[in-house]
Amino acid sequence: MYLITDQQIDFISNDIRTRGIAMASLQHGLLDHICCVIEQELEPGGDFETHYQSVIRRFYQAELKEIEEETAFLLTNKNYYTMKKTMIASGALSVGLLTAGIVLKFLHLPGAAALLVLGIFLLSFIFLPLTFALRVGEKQEKSQKAISVIGGVCAMLISLGVLFKIMHWPGANMMCMVSLILMLSVFIPLYFFWGFRNPATKVNTIVITVMMFAGCALVLTLIRAPHATRSEYVEQTRAFYLNDQIVKNEKRLAGMVSAGDQSEEIYLACEAVKSFLVRSETGLNQIGADFEAGDALIGESWPGEYFGNSPSEMKKLDDLKAKVDHYNRSQTSALRKIDTNVFELQQRVHATLLALNQIELTVLQNRRELVAMK
Questions:
Q1: Model confidence at 242: pLDDT above 90
Q2: From CA 243, how far away is CA 354, in angstroms rounded?
Q3: Distance between alpha carbon 170 and the CA centroid of its chain, in Å?
Q4: What confidence tens digit (pLDDT) does each residue in 274-286 have?
Q5: Angle in degrees, 0-180, between the axes of helices 128-137 and 80-106, rounded to the nearest 10
Q6: Whole-angstrom Cα distance, residue 286 to residue 269?
Q7: I need a surface site. Which of 13, 91, 110, 360 has the fewest CB within 10 A?
Q8: Of 174, 189, 221, the domain-final residue
Q9: Greatest distance between any 2 Cα atoms in the chain
């Protein structure tokens, strides 16, 4: 076992200070640790200076003062490891919940929406904030920190936009568009400019930049332009208007024969529900031929939102369902049954309006069939 002399101890201590270690406690700790390693590894009579140089290199990658910088960082960020563990746990849990939610959604099993919302919530409010908080807290240039902050904001906006889209909350499209514009116009150019200057990260920067740009472009291809959205709304409204005119014409023809009480009740109930949905969507009681000029368009709202805010109208819908169920049970096999999918409220307003028109056509045509069979 090698025994270190006082002169060698002074040499090690001075060398530690010369290499940039200013903290007294860290100096003593390194000195003690290096002395113990040398005494255990160096044979008696061995070359102290050569072995010391090989031992000291084990404590750093570029220079010894990295230890002091890392120590100062850990002392400043006392909760670093707790935050890191929480980040990893929340990331793993969010991925598990999202995976389970997607599987249940594809299989049309209950619980998919709850798992997806919980997974996106953990991703948006725990994993992503902790990830970028730790990234910003690490030793890096101010430009890198700014890029990390912008990247974190973009990622959170995209994640929240998806959450709002799933929950049908307002502002989802705006969040996604803002995040994509911010990424394309600010984050990606800054990331590319900073990384391209460094020869060590030049190739990776180019590859990642191309992947991010391609990803944003692919997402943008799935987003309709305002003109295309309006055109689709016009076509949806026109389809309902023409279908509604067919229903009214069928009502005139059926009214010339005899009036069946069940058919009339269902028809009037459907008209009341249609009027409520049209009024909620456009502000008008009914759609006229000049709907496009008046900008009275049927969009992509969900009927459940309107009925959820109006218990009295929800009661009318429940009464209509009861009338339809009674009508289906009382009809003979020669007549058509009414499709009750309209009452699930899992489709858009325009689809619900068309389904209500179909209910009216069914009862009116059945009425005419009954008269023809007599």
A1: yes
A2: 7
A3: 14
A4: 999 999 988 888 8
A5: 150
A6: 15
A7: 110
A8: 221
A9: 123
